[in-house]
């Protein structure tokens, strides 16, 4: 089966190039393609030169996406991908030899619409573990050792069946800022539509967890306060009553909003933090409708 590998990226330089080199060394160009969805307009000259060289040689498909948005970058990859399966990787990862094959092997089953691989998150990005001992100095995202059904995917290491992803509306850009909970929402829409999400521990990678930049356009202080709670309240109002997660989602909204450590320890932030919770709750309620199918919206 053919595979499109998509790397949404934002403000990453050498580590992005290293990630691309790994993918290029493992992929079979006859049945695979690499899409770099770049949200950076001011790369270092060496990075720009290398990306342009790969694009001119036909080794990557380079797509500039503005303004920066993780969900919009994912959707752009879905629309532009030429293969029936799209694998999303972060721009700061170390790939195992089994990662690509671990995803692809499950798509012979038409009931599976997404596959999540295991991620070993580095505790110290400057000292990643050896590939033969990925558990050293890392924290596993899932922790299960056996493949099986899952409720959601790992954002930095997951694949989707393109036709189904488009049919359920893709990744919803109403999950704003750092887009927390967008992957849970996407998978929940897949499951409600009758498809399965699968987990495979053999499709693993090491996530370097670089502190700046990233496909999530990350950074707590970059976003208005209401966005931290708003994403979880959006999930709560859209899915919480159906799947029994409403209380847990509200707790996540509180924990990432007014009860976030930097808010709790600075009383002067309390009024703005609690107003952010109120505004995020209103936003979640108003945004709760499901996204329209991208397949019909874009004439696909």
Describe the SSE topology.
Blueprint (H helix, E strand, L loop, with lengths): L2 E7 L4 H13 L5 E7 L6 H12 L4 E4 L5 H11 L4 E5 L3 E3 L3 H6 L7 E11 L15 E3 L7 E3 L6 E5 H6 L14 H11 L3 E12 L17 H19 L2 H11 L4 H4 L5 H17 L7 H4 L3
Parallel strand pairs: 1-2, 1-4, 2-3, 6-10
Antiparallel strand pairs: 4-9, 5-10, 6-7, 6-9, 8-10
Describe this structure in words.
With 300 residues, the chain is α/β, with parallel strands linked by helices. It has 2 domains: 3-217, Spore Coat Polysaccharide Biosynthesis Protein SpsA, Chain A (Alpha-Beta Complex), CATH 3.90.550; 224-286, no CATH class. 38% of the residues lie in helices and 20% in strands. The protein has 11 helices and 10 strands. Strand 1, helix 1 (14-26) and strand 2 form a beta-alpha-beta unit. Helix 6 runs parallel beside helix 7 and helix 7 (225-243) runs antiparallel to helix 8. The model has no long low-confidence stretch (mean pLDDT 93).
């Amino acid at each position: 089966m053919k595979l499109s590998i998509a790397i949404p990226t934002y403000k990453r330089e050498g580590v992005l190039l290293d990630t691309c080199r790994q993918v290029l060394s493992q992929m079979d160009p006859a049945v695979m393609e690499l899409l770099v969805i770049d949200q950076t307009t001011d790369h270092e000259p060496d990075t720009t030169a290398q990306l342009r060289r790969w694009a001119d040689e036909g080794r990557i498909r380079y797509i500039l996406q503005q303004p920066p948005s993780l969900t919009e970058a994912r959707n752009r990859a879905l629309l532009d991908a030429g293969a029936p399966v799209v694998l999303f990787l972060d721009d700061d990862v170390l790939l195992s030899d089994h990662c690509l094959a671990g995803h692809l092997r499950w798509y012979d089953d038409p009931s599976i619409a997404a596959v999540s691989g295991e991620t070993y998150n580095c505790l110290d990005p400057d000292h990643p573990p050896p590939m033969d001992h990925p558990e050293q100095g890392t924290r596993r995202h899932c922790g299960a050792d056996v493949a099986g059904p899952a409720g959601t995917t790992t954002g930095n290491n997951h694949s989707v069946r393109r036709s189904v992803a488009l049919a359920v509306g893709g990744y919803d850009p109403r999950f704003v800022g750092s887009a927390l909970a967008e992957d849970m929402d996407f998978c929940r829409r897949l499951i409600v539509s009758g498809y399965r999400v699968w987990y495979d521990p053999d499709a693993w990678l090491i996530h370097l967890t670089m502190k700046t930049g990233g496909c999530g356009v990350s950074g707590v202080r970059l976003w208005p306060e209401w966005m931290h709670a708003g994403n979880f309240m959006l999930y709560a109002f859209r899915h919480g009553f159906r799947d029994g997660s409403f209380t847990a989602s509200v707790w996540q909204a509180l924990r990432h909003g007014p009860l976030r450590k930097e808010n709790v320890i600075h009383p002067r932030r309390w009024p703005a933090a609690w107003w952010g919770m109120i505004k995020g709750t209103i936003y979640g309620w108003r945004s709760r409708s499901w996204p329209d199918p991208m397949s019909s919206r874009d004439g696909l």
